[in-house]
Design goal:
Layout (H helix, E strand, L loop, with lengths): L5 E2 L2 E2 L12 H5 L2 H37 L3 H14 L4 H13 L3 H14 L4 H14 L3 H14 L3 H18 L6 H13 L3 H14 L4 H13 L3 H14 L6 H11 L3 H14 L4 H13 L3 H12 L5 H33 L1
Antiparallel strand pairs: 1-2
Helix pairs in contact: 2-3, 2-4, 3-4, 4-5, 5-6, 6-7, 7-8, 9-10, 9-11, 10-11, 11-12, 12-13, 13-14, 14-15, 15-16, 16-17
Length: 349
């Protein structure tokens, strides 16, 4: 090796910089080669620019086709562009959107996976794939994993909040049915609506075990037990619900009905009065307190509460009951008024 290419016995490597970028002397000595190389770089950069520009134009055309509902045209545009540039993540993402719109979810999944493979930071593709897995294939674990991955890299704060909400919903869904008081209460409501009263009661009872202060579970279980003609058990639940939440709407009225059913008439009357006082907008509370007043022959006040109940948009069956009591009570009220007038006349004599 020449001496000038050694320093302290260590060989000095020759420059690996392209020949046209070396010293001015070398450059001047190779003008033809330099010109050719520069032209090659310009062509290369021009090609990349044109390719990127073509991709942008394709995506714009795809968006227009999607807006106009021409989903198959959008798929065709993406497919043609992918032939020219098969490593463009955004093209696969756009085509997946179109596939979703025509219910070709398997193809959408393939394209979204390919988009993520080409661009591991494509949070939009991750979120879209998570949604497809969740809503179309019930692959909740895979969906949760993708939502979490997207949340780690997403830049848009709004999208980040949306992802966190999706994560919370899925984490709750993946819990066992009986591990959360709220979840047990929710499932109890579902079973009760479906008519499966025994399972509903088990869920409500489990909710109370997990959270003894959950007044909603006591109230719901009390309603269930009233339906099953177990008024004594229901009464305990309503009493507990009121103890935990004294202003709970409907609790006093249901407690009054339970007391009435087991023969505690005086207590039932107090409960109905409390219900009408605490929740004057409840037509049931007004109606049942009217019954209490009617039983005590206070016909005028009873009519007042019945009429108040009618103004509170009662359900058709309750409206019918109210109107029946008003019709039955009106002659009594008139008779009572006549008797009072006769008494006053006698007193005058």
């Amino acid at each position: 090796m020449p001496a000038d290419e050694r320093r302290c016995g260590i060989p000095i490597m020759r420059s690996t910089v392209p020949f046209c970028y070396r010293s001015g002397k070398e450059f001047r000595g190779n003008k033809v080669f330099a010109a050719l190389f520069a032209a090659f770089v310009v062509l290369l950069m021009s090609g990349e620019f044109k390719l990127a520009s073509a991709t942008d134009e394709t995506i714009a055309s795809v968006n227009k086709a999607m807006e106009e509902g021409r989903f198959k045209d959008a798929i065709g545009l993406c497919s043609e562009a992918i032939k020219l540039d098969p490593k463009q993540s955004s093209l696969y993402f756009q085509r997946a959107r179109a596939y979703e719109m025509i219910n070709q979810f398997d193809k959408a999944v393939d394209d979204l996976n390919r988009a993520i493979e080409l661009d591991p930071l494509n949070s939009e593709a991750m979120e879209a794939l998570a949604e497809v897995y969740e809503t179309r294939f019930s692959r909740f674990s895979d969906s949760l994993r993708l939502y979490k991955q997207a949340a780690e890299i997403v830049q848009d704060p709004y999208a980040g909040k949306r992802l966190q909400a999706n994560i919370a919903v899925l984490e709750n869904r993946l819990q066992k049915d009986d591990t959360s008081a709220v979840r047990c209460w929710h499932w109890g409501n579902i079973k009760a609506a479906a008519g499966d009263l025994s399972k509903a009661e088990r869920y409500y009872t489990q909710a109370i075990r997990l959270d003894p202060a959950m007044f909603q579970a006591y109230f719901s279980r009390g309603l269930l037990r009233m339906k099953a003609d177990r008024a004594k058990d229901a009464l305990k639940d309503f009493e507990e619900a009121i103890k935990l939440s004294p202003s709970l709407r409907g609790a006093y009225m249901q407690k009054g009905l339970a007391n009435q059913q087991i023969g505690n008439i005086e207590q039932a009357h107090r409960d109905f009065e409390n219900a009408a006082t605490m929740d004057p907008h409840d037509p049931y509370a007004q109606f049942y307190f009217g019954l209490v007043l009617e039983t005590g022959k206070d016909f005028q006040d009873a009519l007042q509460h019945y009429n108040e109940a009618l103004t509170r948009n009662p359900k058709p069956e309750l409206r019918k009951m109210i109107q029946e009591r008003i019709s039955a009570l009106d002659p009594m009220r008139k008779s009572d008024s006549k008797n009072n007038a006769d008494r006053k006349t006698k007193d005058l004599w």
